[in-house]
Amino acid sequence: MLTSLEITGLRGFASKQTLTFSLPNGTPGSGLTVIVGANNAGKSTAIEALRAVAQRQGPSFTQGRRNQAAGDQVLIRAADADGNATVLKSVRPGSSETEYIMEHKGVDLSKLLVLPARRVFSPYFNRSVTTRDDYMANIGFPAIRTSTMDQFTYRLFAIEKNRAQFDQLLKRVVDPVPDWSIDQMDNGQYFLKIRKGSATHSSEGLGEGLVSLLFIVDALYDSKDGDTIAVDEPELSLHPALQQKLSDLLLEYSATRQIAVSTHSPHFAGLAALPNGATVARVHAVDEESRISQLSSATAKKIFGLMKNDNNPHVLGLAAQEIFFIEDRVILVEGQEDVVFFKKVQSSIEPLEGTFFGWGVGGAENMERIATVLKELGFSKVVGILDGNRAQLAQTLKENFPLFHFFSIPADDIRTKSPVPERPAVVGLLNDANNAIRPEYLEKTKQLLQKANVYLRG
């Protein structure tokens, strides 16, 4: 399997940058590699590089794809754990043509399937059936990134022969599964027909989100252990609820396959899979060059504890993960009260020119962990604000993160608080010791949930 991908000279990658891939070990998410970053930073280019090096014949790199600062030439190197590598490089500076160089045995890229962001096909097509291997080989590397993928229509005819298996997986994301079939017009062309009740419409009117899902589910349903699948922006045109379901599906498949995604959606950030071996890389621009910064395994283990904090489950929730998709300028505060009330402070004095990290870092003790995550992912403009009674911690953070800016406010808290009288004990549904449901409430709660499910299935 792939262990790394080096990119030099492709689009914004003026200097050599390296992306490291996760390796599946049988646990969900272990083979997941997530690429995040702001718009126009180079995330899609990383997927494009993978697609280019996997071609059977050396692709051509157009003038617009070659970076002049890199000598007007491209070099992409894919390596595996055994010391093998496949290198795709320009034959000479200023030329669109390329050649392959195999280091040792070269990397076997025959089981690599790369899906670009624009997953569309012509609504009317001819009949042909293709295998998965031929489909992967014939997707090609078009001169225009937004070209349609008409080879996929040949996969539709193959899917028809494995419809139960395909629909079973599609149902994991879209339930009920759309009633679709392949039909033929009198002029001989075929089209995808969608039936809703007594009405039908052709694939020309098919929603882009469903079209994208057909591509992704096809990439998964007949894949084998050890395959590598890369998807650029799997979230395109999908409702957030469907994004979460698709993300869960990718986590499941990445137990035995390498799954790489480039995304703008926090639903696909993959932080929950970090302890199993998943990795997160951020592509960002530095002096108009694309750079890749990747989270270390040591930091991944440290921050996983924050995700298991039942008292502050939002510390690395969706709002916090949205930070990974901005360019820079992140503001760290201790907790959710600080996020709310610092906005009032700013309205009275001067607004901070940055974005607050979620709903705070979950306490001053966590600021070092979150700052480490941002540092490893290549953020360069980070402000950390602590309460006045944590001035010593602010000083320590300044010393440990010299590129970031930390300070403590001149008061012990963001707002004045009255003393709180002692609260009486409350018996909850879960016990205090292990958060297990209390036996005396088990049967009644089970009945309530069953009734709710009957209603939901309605």
Which fold does the CATH topology of the largest domain refer to?
Rossmann fold
Q: Return the domain count.
A: 3
Proportion of residues in extended strands: 15-25%
Give the number of helices. 12
Oligomer classification:
single chain
User: Can you list the strand order of the major beta sheet?
Assistant: 7-12-13-3-14-15
Helix content: 25-40%
CATH architecture of the largest domain: 3-Layer(aba) Sandwich
Q: What structural class do the secondary elements suggest?
A: alpha/beta
Please tell me what the overall shape is: globular
> Gyration radius, to the nearest Å?
25 Å
Give the mean pLDDT.
Answer: 88
Account of the protein in words:
With 458 residues, this protein is an alpha/beta fold. The protein has three domains: 2-294, Rossmann fold (3-Layer(aba) Sandwich); 318-408, Rossmann fold; 429-458. The chain has twelve helices and 19 strands. The strands form four sheets. A six-stranded mixed β-sheet has the order 7-12-13-3-14-15, with helices on both faces. The longest helix has 19 residues, at 439-457. It is globular and about 80 Å long. The two termini are 46 Å apart.
